[in-house]
Amino acid sequence: MSAAPRVIDDALLHASADDRLDQEQRRLVAEWLEAHPEDARRVADWRRQNDLIRELWAAVDDEPVPPRLSLPRLIGRPWRRRALAAAAALLLLVAGALGGWFVRGWSGGGDGALAELAHSALAAHRVFVAERRHAVEVDRSEEQHLVTWLSRRLERPLRAPDLSAFGLALMGGRLLPIGAGDPAAQLMYEDADGARYTLFVTRGDGRLEEFRIVEEGGVTAFSWVDASIGCAVVGTVARDRLLAIAREAYTQLAAPSD
Amino acid sequence: MAVGAGRSLDFLTDLESCIPSLRRYARALLRDGDRADDLVQDCLERALSRRHLWRGGPSLRPWLFKIMHNVFANQARARASRPRGQPIDQLGEGVGVPADQGHRLALAEMARALASLPEEQRRTVLLVALEGLSYQEVAEAMDVPIGTVMSRLSRARERLRALTAAEPGPSLRRVK
After folding, report:
1. Residues of B in contact with A65 (CB under 8 A)
2. Which residues from B are below 8 Å from A18, CB to CB?
3. What is the per-residue pLDDT across A150-194, written as a single tens digit (0 to 9) for each?
4. What is the chain A residue with the closest CA to B105?
5. CA–CA separation, B36 vs B24, rounded Å?
6. By the 8 A CB rule, do B134 and B150 touch?
């Protein structure tokens, strides 16, 4: 049975040089190469080419990635903003004549649920982080009750993400209205220096899977919507850190409840 | 794939993990650090703004390389009307501390040989050798059938063989 491909074609030889053969193919190619020294030389040369090519640019991996390639900075930037700046200016002129419709479209200013989520989260953040005595409605000492209550009201299994890896401790949370009166949950966290962060959770609309960063008056919200929940992480902090916190919260919120 | 939970932040995580690979490939294409990072930046911005077009799949990289090729082609068209300020042969960049003189020569020779390849062949061999893409992924990234990938790879490798000394070390080179 193993006598199937007696002739080893070039595709297999290339795959051999690139280590993409399974065990059986490796055996067949090895046999072939033993009997065909010219092919053996080719494969050896190709391997050496691979090694040299990798070595030529290996140093790039050791360089720090420049800040301008950081994703948190790039999120929300319209594609080819620089190249299209002139065209944009022209469009804005036209847009003025069309009554502003274009301006919103161009700046990516408002796309429904996600924009509303971000602005509600920012507003709630500003109101409640300023509170000393009533920052939260249910204190962290009743975390289990808080989570059960908010889960029931939002009709989603929620949890309070553990953000201690970022030095953030849960303070507690509250229930809020959003939009036309849908329930939203706000969880508040505090770091060792007293800086406060909020996690704002709403019901997802079941369709969008999007994310965005919005900044208002020095406060940044990173928000996303997926099939099950809409969520925003809000804080007065650099985008990179906020995104890292958001990822952690997202991972924990998305994990199946046990 | 993901049940209930969204993929939006997974996309970001995947995209971020591809940045080193994109930078390396862009550097190999352009041989100029700043221009290469410009290309990566444009590619990332475009990927972010078109993320709704990503259909998911085992690997994001072929899609990203495809975007990069498109961006590169657009820029090349824009550049064609401007004078070139960049010397073609900028070797040494990326060449680390050489183990020995012979090895450094071999590296320089390979860089020169690569630069002399037709663009399509060069991309193919870079995606395979440098980025470790499968032949199927290269086909996706270059938007060609896999048979085309194989023939380009064959031609590229034979040409590189012809242009570089096969044996390690300069002392073994034939003396006429």
Report:
1. 19-20, 23
2. 128-129, 132
3. 999 999 889 999 999 999 999 999 999 988 888 999 999 999 999
4. A52
5. 9
6. no
d(CA A116, CA A108) in angstroms, rounded, equals 13
**What three-state secondary structure class fits A25?**
helix
Nearest by CB to B40, from A48, A57, A69: name it: A69
**Is residue B67 within 8 angstroms of chain A, CB to CB?**
no
pLDDT tens-digit readout, A72-114: 888 865 554 444 444 444 444 444 444 333 333 333 334 677 8
End-to-end CA distance of chain B, in Å?
A: 63
In words, the CATH class of domain B100-165 is: mainly alpha
Strands (DSSP E) found in B36-175: none
Phi and psi at A206, nearest 5°, equal 80, -5
Which chain A residue lies closest to B156 (C-alpha atoms)? A46
Domain spans, chain B: 1-82, 100-165
Domain with CATH 3.30.200.100 in chain A: 110-254
Q: Which residues of A touch B43 (CB under 8 A)?
A: none
Q: Is B4 on the interface with A (CB under 8 A)?
A: yes
What is the ipTM, given to two decimal places? 0.83
DSSP state, B154?
H
* CATH classification number, B1-82, choose in 1.10.1740.10, 3.10.310.30, 3.40.50.450, 1.10.3720.10: 1.10.1740.10
Please indicate whether, in this complex, the C-beta atoms of A61 and B40 are within 8 angstroms of each other.
no
Chain A to chain B Cβ contacts (< 8 Å): 146
Q: Which of A14, A53, A247 sits opposite B126 (nearest CB)?
A: A53
Which CATH architecture best describes the domain A110-254?
2-Layer Sandwich (3.30)
Residues 218-237 on A with a CB inside 8 Å of B are 224-228
